[in-house]
């Protein structure tokens, strides 16, 4: 009774209607939660290879700047009073430009800046702006965001002038775009404000008038006038001490050295009261009350930058004198690679070993590596146009894992590339409407849309495929050639192909057939959407041959396509397994189909795509699948663990796309009982989640529980799920969390008991759970925890200043299955006032999504919460209409039986016009699809298989 009183006293206070107030509600590279159930695929002769067609689609070129002038140098002066939460700023930019064609018009970009005056100046003999020539007329077109400045005289080609523009603007509000404001609470509960920039891809124009296209590079000289107790930081080191502002004794001006040539989107600066940690030529800026959390990112930054400089054989410090990392509060999990000033959301830069998990450490390490890789791929060499953004993001995705591995070999970060990047890319790239890697764009919204899974995961996967095929020496030689030729300039895909071709000529002239170019090979992947499935049909004759064919893989249908991907393939067989890829070991499928000799005996399995370096799926004839299943059940270790993950992922997705009987992946995954490696288990996670989501709440769910428990039977007892051993590696910790999650999810009694005991012991000692088991112990321990323990964990969340730690605790609290606890927790998402000042908008929405994502009890809690009309009004005011629509859609996705549908229908009636009719219609359709699944071939096969397994005695 006391516990219930505590809960009501603490959390019902948060629910007081008088505390509600309106507050509006690249997600990028964030770690998925295991606890949130998501809802949703002989060498050939190439001499006759197809020509490379031009596939550059047309766009509205009116958004592009004319080519009559080009920038050379910017002198930008900005003034801000962010310390007093003023959102207004003012500035003057002087742009030295060259006239390329005779003109009377200079065109720049401007987004919502008020241009007060503009002047044309001569270029002084000694440099800088000289005498004023005239004040120029100006106007801005809202659609193209072109600032047109018209002069009274014809400017001759080859001449150079300064354009001086005075302007005012408003800081954007916590939206991670342009020049924007954010804030944090200090140790006394006072809110402190700061301003920082994020200009990629088209937001520099919202901070100052400029040539806002990536190829139009220039040098930048920056000065920031700000409150004297604040500090300013930018791409370059400060040029001397701040100088007093003659107009206001409370202000100073910080000036910075001139940058190298760079694109406008890479200019960066911040004004704040942050503290600074320094080591060598690197620094980390963060708010003062998290200073202790900057030690690891500083160490990692130095190690990773050195590793990349060595690998690229081009030193970062040959171009930039320093590197600064800055942690921006309330910026989510995004990051931006500004040259010399990399900006991060706090959860992906700050690290506190006392409270942050191994997953946080992994995220911090790999995201630093991602942003540091951009110092070469994007900063030293920028894309000629956004069409080639994969030259930035694809390389950065590849090297976020590779460079992290170089800097921290013991972390085994490269082992995560297959399951986190390649398998992720497959999911998005199996759509009929997906774009290719090369894809033109014009409007700001079109350009922003290019920063997608294709740019990151697919491009990283394709680049890694060619890295493996060409071999590391050729690859690195080619990259250095490419970057040396294009340094401080823009690049297209052809420039990369040329660098790699030159490397082949120099180091490996016979690696490819003489008539084949790198451009032909790579363009078949970069200029076409999707990826192929390689079908291997063994003839089982005396010649030991196989027929290979390729077809574009789509998750939902098959469509005829004449396109031929140049598919690099290698293979090994059960008679002499060899899973080490070598450049000499690859052959090429350069046609729709081909017959090859394999040398593999007919009674032995064969596997193509060793270690899954190739970006394609592989399907086999029925007999070879049987041989593979038998081999996995007899001795999984005879097949490389990455290929075991490949087999699981391919079989499941081929079955979903109706290339395979669904019994094949179910039988294959049964081998997991003998699996001890993380990659195959996590590859199985999507299949297990899919089946769980389909079967939970139905009469068939107990059969799924038998299947899942059978898989866990051998590995679960080997893992100490409620303690941490000093020798556990990163991958072992990943594996332990995965196994614990599934064991507790399917009702494993020992798992639930141990996590509950571990949490109770931590509560009794008033000691937080060790961070490396915190996610599993907190979540599973809270399933039916007392109110005292629930409040204790909530208080940890409320008092934590570490955003990554707060996210772990949000997800943990959502794991409760007690209706009163969940109702109280959901209420906190809407609270306002001093009690809730520390809650971020992203945390409020995460509370809701975490609750309905954790369990059916959580779904019911959200459903009950939204059945109260006054709460719905507050919900929309606080979190936004999209959050309500999303909640309804997710409730529908998790509705599997008639009583659940009755509850959903009652909610839809209660909400009425508060949600669009399309959302309600879609929700009902989703549920009907859930019901109909049991009458599909896939559903019938799954149900039959699981029933037979559950009712047939299994080997113990």
From TrEMBL:
<dbReference type="GO" id="GO:0070006">
    <property type="term" value="F:metalloaminopeptidase activity"/>
</dbReference>
<feature type="binding site">
    <location>
        <position position="370"/>
    </location>
    <ligand>
        <name>Zn(2+)</name>
    </ligand>
</feature>
<keyword id="KW-0645">Protease</keyword>
<feature type="domain" description="Peptidase M1 membrane alanine aminopeptidase">
    <location>
        <begin position="296"/>
        <end position="525"/>
    </location>
</feature>
<keyword id="KW-0378">Hydrolase</keyword>
<feature type="site" description="Transition state stabilizer">
    <location>
        <position position="456"/>
    </location>
</feature>
<feature type="binding site">
    <location>
        <position position="374"/>
    </location>
    <ligand>
        <name>Zn(2+)</name>
    </ligand>
</feature>
<dbReference type="Pfam" id="PF17900">
    <property type="entry name" value="Peptidase_M1_N"/>
</dbReference>
<feature type="signal peptide">
    <location>
        <begin position="1"/>
        <end position="21"/>
    </location>
</feature>
<dbReference type="GO" id="GO:0008270">
    <property type="term" value="F:zinc ion binding"/>
</dbReference>
<keyword id="KW-0449">Lipoprotein</keyword>
<dbReference type="InterPro" id="IPR027268">
    <property type="entry name" value="Peptidase_M4/M1_CTD_sf"/>
</dbReference>
<keyword id="KW-0472">Membrane</keyword>
<dbReference type="Pfam" id="PF01433">
    <property type="entry name" value="Peptidase_M1"/>
</dbReference>
<feature type="domain" description="ERAP1-like C-terminal">
    <location>
        <begin position="605"/>
        <end position="910"/>
    </location>
</feature>
<keyword id="KW-1015">Disulfide bond</keyword>
<keyword id="KW-0325">Glycoprotein</keyword>
<dbReference type="Pfam" id="PF11838">
    <property type="entry name" value="ERAP1_C"/>
</dbReference>
<dbReference type="GO" id="GO:0016285">
    <property type="term" value="F:alanyl aminopeptidase activity"/>
</dbReference>
<keyword id="KW-0031">Aminopeptidase</keyword>
<dbReference type="GO" id="GO:0005615">
    <property type="term" value="C:extracellular space"/>
</dbReference>
<dbReference type="GO" id="GO:0098552">
    <property type="term" value="C:side of membrane"/>
</dbReference>
<keyword id="KW-0479">Metal-binding</keyword>
<keyword id="KW-1003">Cell membrane</keyword>
<dbReference type="InterPro" id="IPR034016">
    <property type="entry name" value="M1_APN-typ"/>
</dbReference>
<dbReference type="GO" id="GO:0005886">
    <property type="term" value="C:plasma membrane"/>
</dbReference>
<dbReference type="InterPro" id="IPR050344">
    <property type="entry name" value="Peptidase_M1_aminopeptidases"/>
</dbReference>
<feature type="binding site">
    <location>
        <position position="393"/>
    </location>
    <ligand>
        <name>Zn(2+)</name>
    </ligand>
</feature>
<keyword id="KW-0482">Metalloprotease</keyword>
<feature type="active site" description="Proton acceptor">
    <location>
        <position position="371"/>
    </location>
</feature>
<dbReference type="GO" id="GO:0005737">
    <property type="term" value="C:cytoplasm"/>
</dbReference>
<dbReference type="GO" id="GO:0006508">
    <property type="term" value="P:proteolysis"/>
</dbReference>
<dbReference type="InterPro" id="IPR014782">
    <property type="entry name" value="Peptidase_M1_dom"/>
</dbReference>
<comment type="similarity">
    <text>Belongs to the peptidase M1 family.</text>
</comment>
<dbReference type="InterPro" id="IPR024571">
    <property type="entry name" value="ERAP1-like_C_dom"/>
</dbReference>
<protein>
    <recommendedName>
        <fullName>Aminopeptidase</fullName>
        <ecNumber>3.4.11.-</ecNumber>
    </recommendedName>
</protein>
<keyword id="KW-0336">GPI-anchor</keyword>
<dbReference type="InterPro" id="IPR001930">
    <property type="entry name" value="Peptidase_M1"/>
</dbReference>
<dbReference type="InterPro" id="IPR045357">
    <property type="entry name" value="Aminopeptidase_N-like_N"/>
</dbReference>
<dbReference type="InterPro" id="IPR042097">
    <property type="entry name" value="Aminopeptidase_N-like_N_sf"/>
</dbReference>
<dbReference type="GO" id="GO:0043171">
    <property type="term" value="P:peptide catabolic process"/>
</dbReference>
<feature type="domain" description="Aminopeptidase N-like N-terminal">
    <location>
        <begin position="71"/>
        <end position="266"/>
    </location>
</feature>
